Amino acid sequence: MSSMECCKFKSFLCFLTHTLLFCSLWGCTSLLRQGTWPAPSLVQADSKILTQRVTVRSGNWDQSQAEIAYALAADASQREDSACVDHYLEAAEHCWREIESRSHEKGIHDCYVSAIYRSALNALVIEGQKYKRLDPRVGLSVKSQKGWRLIPCMYYGFDRPPDDFNSLFPVGPYATKELNQLYRQDGLGVPVVVVRSRTISNDFQRKTSTFPATLLVKHHDDSSTPNELPLVLEFHNPIDASTIAIQGVSKPLAIDKSAPTARVLSTTQRNYLGAFLQPSSVANDDSGLFMLEPYVAGKIPVLLVHGLLSDRLTWANVVNELRSREWYSQRFQVWGYQYPTGEPFLGTAAKLRQQLDAIGGYLDPEATDPALDRLVMIGHSMGGLISKMQIAYSGDSLWNAISKLPFEGVTIEPAIRTKLKDAFFFEASPMVSRVIFVGTPHRGSALAQRAIGRLGSILIEEPAEQKKAHRKLMSDNPGVFSDEFSNRVPTSVDLLEPNSPLLQAMDSLPLEPCVKLHSIIGDGRWMLGNGDSDGVVPVSSATQAGATSEKRVSGKHADLPSDPEMIEELLRILRLHWEEAPTEQDSLN
Question: Which among 456, 34, 534 has a CA at the least distance from the CA of 263?
């Protein structure tokens, strides 16, 4: 190895070491590798039924026919014959007849015929999509002696159109260490993860999103055809209902509300370190304001904003807990905001303000839904500062913190002037009515001042266009700007230094008095020179004047969004928020 190569290698090791150290200090866990989603376990077919014509294990005709059809399906599947789809459907139909005839039995969903039914449904989903016979938006194409026919899909309890059912993933024996709890129950049917996919996203929903459903194959009770009940594929929303009526008897549905979140955690390649070090490299489609579910008038938005060196999946446990509670799903809807965390957060806050204004006009152009003006923001770490900038009035305080001249007196190119105006001059958003700060460094963090924080700031790559614009701004206005702003556009880490004049100015901004504030603060970790903290943010920095409640939890900074005590406090505040809703909220629901 040449001396130059050796030097480069040492530089790389130094960079890697400092980056990993920086991540550990700020709460960045190891980058997750993209994993796989396990397929469900299927019942083993009895091959002797086909090869030796043995008597099936049950004397019941429907169950016997189900076993024969299931064995035929398994054999066809092994031979990669698409006829397996037809046989799996036949097996499911016979099982359903048997289940209907025994609907009075308490444990019908735990018996052998139900096991065959679940296995046939799971295989039907897998093989039906494999051979392009199943389109969850329309139905299942099957072939019999009478020719081809379409088994239609029906949807119950969803606020989504059928067009959102782009693909299905059966729920296998997955496990995750990232979710505190899994919300699921045994019952009839099979839980599936439904994936909504779009080539472009222009409706404030991400290109790809997931949601839970429970699938059944059954006969549809249609009074127009009393002598022949048609076969259908039914999708039920497990967040909306947990039971199904069979012959007038209520039976539990198979439910897994946590599976969509677990699948996203398992299969998503996360790159929040790249979004921190090279914020300009983040695609537009992977940032911005988005809804996790379709807009429903009367439901109050809860907007989750992640912090430094993080991404939207930081809130996986919160989303999992919220979706598991029926009262929440009836009253609230989840929104999120993802952004490259290396960008100066004043600019990030400006983008969110613009998008909040845009989404209000997009969803409710006539301004008839009061729920949109009761939005609750929950911000972790730097996300709390971004949230705070949505309810603040800037006046000229922020500009005066970096400039000796008024805004109008500075020579600025038109495009740059617009960006600076959006970042430094603003009023509170009328949509936000409550903000919950989680481990928010209102007065900065000492780590930003130390060597590791300064290294992190240096490592953030400033876009060439931004460098050029900044140099011109400085050359056109010599001696006008503060030291903090003169050297370079301050990074997100720079703005977390406790002695930052800009951060101090932000902390002094007047907030909209009608907005209610809450603080959730991590403690129990002593920081030299700063006292009690969560390991990153001192308690003294995480407190917010005027907060109506303050909850201390003994958790590390990075773990706060998953902390059970923190989540319980969020749920308490959201219940309170609903109880304080104006009376017109009830009329909408």
Answer: 34
Name the residue range of residue 82's domain: 48-261
pTM: 0.89
CB neighbour list of residue 248: distance below 8 Å, 6 or more residues apart: none
Per-residue pLDDT at 133: 97
Among 402, 391, 457, residue whose Cα is nearest residue 424: 402
399 and 548 inside one domain: yes
Residue 273 lies in a domain: no
At a CB cut-off of 8 Å and minimum separation 6, what does 95 contact? 62, 63, 66, 113, 114, 116, 117, 120
Q: Please indicate, yes or no, whether residues 99 and 190 belong to a single structural domain of this protein.
A: yes
Q: What single-letter DSSP state applies at residue 221?
A: -
Residue 13 falls within a domain, yes or no?
Answer: no
User: How do residues 147-175 score in pLDDT, each as one tens digit?
Assistant: 899 999 999 999 999 999 999 999 999 98
470 in a domain, yes or no?
Answer: no
Domain count, the chain: 2
Give per-residue pLDDT as tens, 61-96. 888 899 999 999 999 999 999 999 999 999 999 999
One domain, residues 230 and 153: yes
Question: Is the dihedral angle over the CA atoms 549, 551, 556, 561 positive or is it negative?
Answer: negative
Lowest mean pLDDT among 12-21, 344-353, 473-482: 12-21
Find out whether 84 and 76 touch, Cβ atoms under 8 Å: yes
pLDDT of residue 453: 40
Co-location of 241 and 365 in the same domain:
no
At residue 283, the pLDDT reads 59
Query: What distance in Å separates the CA atoms of residue 265 and residue 310, rounded to the nearest whole number?
Result: 14
Structure-token pair, residue 113: 């015929």
What are the pLDDT digits (tens) for 522-555? 999 988 888 999 999 999 999 999 999 999 999 8
Residues 97 and 159 reside in one and the same domain? yes
Q: Residue 318 sits in a domain of what CATH number? A: 3.40.50.1820
Pick 45 or 57 by higher pLDDT.
Answer: 45
Q: Which of 347, 348, 352, 344 is nearest to 289 (CA)?
A: 352
Residue 309, SS3?
Answer: coil
Q: What is the dihedral of CA 100, 106, 109, 113, to 10 degrees?
A: -60
- Asked if the structure places residue 39 within a domain, the reply is no
**How confident is residue 214, by pLDDT bands cut at 50, 70 and 90?**
very high
**Considering only CA atoms, which of 244, 313, 304 is closest in space to residue 272?**
313
- pLDDT per residue as tens digits for the range 433-444: 999 999 999 998
Residues 328 and 254 in one domain: no
Reduce the secondary structure of 371-410 to three states and give it as a string. HHHHEEEEEECHHHHHHHCCCECCCCHHHHHHECCCHHHC
Burial class (CB in 10 A: 0-12, 13-18, 19+), 19: middle
Q: Which residues contact 457 (CB under 8 A, 6 or more apart)?
A: 448, 491, 493, 494
